């Protein structure tokens, strides 16, 4: 088993400082540091994968949504969302009903069991997030959160490449 480092070595720091896209790399690294271990633990303890958790998270904030809306909001591929929908319906975590305005679409709603699962699993992400962001003071964390929101809003307006 490899020994964990207590601080980054010079090669690690050098990569963060010299890579041609430093902010993108740092954001990706931080997101992976939070999401990877949290989603692994969620899969282990609850038996759901990332796409299924993201589906439940989206539905926990809206009364009903279409799968396409979830794909757009989460930036997850439509086929990934579709597979998650089928499994979460089969497990009883979400319900599907016809969309009266568009017969080709279905409206999705989270069930009480789905909400309970999402609430419990979300704590894994929050705990991991808090560990990664522990290096920040309360003021720094607020400023960081505000900047992330500003960037996320801007990114939501961009056309995909």
Describe it for me?
- The structure is a single chain.
- By secondary structure, the chain is mainly alpha-helical.
- 66% of the residues lie in helices and 6% in strands.
- The chain contains seven helices and two strands.
- The chain has helices at 10-18, 22-46, 50-59, 67-74, 78-91, 112-132, 138-156; strands spanning 94-98, 106-110.
- Strands 1-2 form a two-stranded antiparallel ribbon.
- Strand 1 and strand 2 (106-110) form a beta hairpin.
- Helix 2 crosses helix 6, helix 3 packs across helix 6 and helix 4 (67-74) crosses helix 5.
- The radius of gyration is 18 Å and the shape is globular.
- The N and C termini lie far apart (40 Å).
How would you sum up this structure in a few lines?
By secondary structure, the chain is mainly alpha-helical. The chain has seven helices and two strands; from the N terminus they run H-H-H-H-H-E-E-H-H.
Low-confidence stretches: none
What's the helix count?
A: 7
Shape designation: globular
The CA-CA distance between the termini, in Å, is 40 Å
Strand content: 5-15%
By helix and strand content, what is the structural category? mainly alpha
Question: How do the strands line up in the largest sheet?
Answer: 1-2
| Largest sheet descriptor | 2 strands, antiparallel
Helix content: 55-70%
Global Rg: 18 Å
Give a count of the beta strands, DSSP E runs of length 2 or more: 2
Q: Would you tell me the overall average pLDDT?
A: 90
Output the helix-strand order: HHHHHEEHH
